[in-house]
Each structure stands twice: as structure tokens, then as C-alpha cells.
Amino acid sequence: MSESASISSGIAERYAAAVFELVKEANGLSKLEANLDDLTAALEGSAELRDLLQSPVYSRDAQGAAITAIAQKMGLEASMTNVLGLMAQKRRLFAVPQLIARLRDKIADEKGEVTAEVVSATALSAAQATKLAETLKANVGRDVKINATVDESLIGGLVVKVGSMMIDTSVASKLNSLQNAMKEVG
Q1: Backbone angles phi, psi at 93, to 5 degrees
Q2: Count of helix runs (H) and strand runs (E) in the chain
Q3: Distance from C-alpha of 66 to C-alpha of 83, rounded to nearest angstrom
Q4: Is the pLDDT of residue 3 over 80?
Q5: CB-CB neighbours of 37 under 10 Å
Q6: Can you give the pLDDT at residue 7?
Q7: Rounded mean pLDDT of 3-24?
Q8: Helices marked H in 26-141 — which ranges?
Q9: What count of Cα atoms within 13 Å lies in the side-chain half-sphere of residue 153?
Q10: Does the chain have fewer CB atoms within 10 Å around its N or its C terminus?
Q11: Number of Cβ atoms within 10 Å of the Cβ of 41
Q12: Residues 130-151 pLDDT 10s
């Protein structure tokens, strides 16, 4: 892990622990989870928002006012809005993506869930995602939340990551294995 990623992760962990505890005491974890989905969608959909979080050009006050206004307009939990404002004042908004990830991890732990990162060649249907979640639950012993993405270069099959476990059943991987085996023979 690079030093800057480690610093961001450490910063995000401290803020996430504080927000999580405050929201948990207020029984607002389900709203916080919905807020994280909204915030993630906003980050993915707005280059201006990503620029606001990353750019050192904006003053602390400008970042604080902007992120607080955005958070209030989105209807984020008061604790989340406050921590975003505090992060702006401390010049820590660059760690918001890691903050979101840490909060998701804490919520999943609280609910007894684990997230599976699934990459497939084509989009999974609802039935396929449900069946995959059931199969993974049988193997890991916890409820599994599927985070699915599509990568057409896999040709077919899936790559599933749950914690430190990875299952690669993609056609591309099998073709690479076959190619390596053929190189060893010839």
C-alpha cells in the first residue's frame, strides 16, 4: 500500500468510527447506509464534486460551505454532514471515498454481512445474483451483499472476491492458463 493511501485510510478510519458510533447510538444505520449510496452516486456522477474533494485550489471555507450545502441538499444524516464540514476545515476531504468504504464495512459488520465483489462478462440478472449470494452464504457463513460490475474482457464466467478469498472462473483466465501450459510444453 502506498504511503498516501495508508494515510487516507487511517484518516478515514478515525472519522468513520466517530460517525458510525454517533449514528448507531441514534439508531440511524439504515439511513446512513442510504446516505452512503447517495453520496457514492453523487461522486460517480459529478466531476465537479470529485474536483471539490481533491483540489487544493479551493479554500477551507469554500470547501466547507460547498460540502455542507451539498450534504444538506442531499438530506444526509446530521453526523455525516458535520463530519464532512469538519473534514473540509481540516483539509481532509480527499479521504471521503475511503470514509465511505470504511463506513460500509462497519455497517456490514454490524449487520453480519460480507460484501462480495463480483465481476462478470455480462450483467447478472436478479435471479443469478440471488443464487450467487445464497451459494456464497453457504460457503462463508454470513449474509452476502453482491457488488456486481461488468468486464467484457472476461469473455464469460465470473471473478468473485469475498474478503481474502478469490474465485476466478472466467474464460479469459482459463485461456491464459491453457496458454501458459502450452508454453511450458513447447
Answers
A1: -65, -20
A2: 8, 4
A3: 13
A4: no
A5: 12
A6: 79
A7: 88
A8: 29-45, 47-54, 60-74, 78-89, 96-111, 126-140
A9: 2
A10: C
A11: 11
A12: 999 999 999 998 999 999 999 9
Q: Which domains, ranges and CATH numbers included, belong to the chain?
A: 3-109 (1.10.520.20), 112-185 (3.40.30)
Integer Cα distance of 30 and 7 in angstroms: 28
| CA distance linking residue 70 with residue 169, whole number of Å | 42
Residue 104 backbone class (left: φ over 0; alpha: ψ -120 to 50; beta: rest): alpha
Separation between Cα atoms, residue 18 and residue 32, nearest integer Å: 13
Max CA separation in the chain (angstroms)? 66
116 beta partners: 146, 162
User: Which residues are bridge partners to 147 per DSSP?
Assistant: 117
Residue written as grid cell 454490524: 110
Q: What is the pLDDT of residues 146-176, one digit of tens each?
A: 999 999 999 999 999 998 899 999 999 999 9
Eight-state DSSP code of residue 124: P
**143, 169 Cβ separation under 8 angstroms:** no
Instruction: Work out the mean pLDDT of the chain and round it to a whole number.
Output: 92
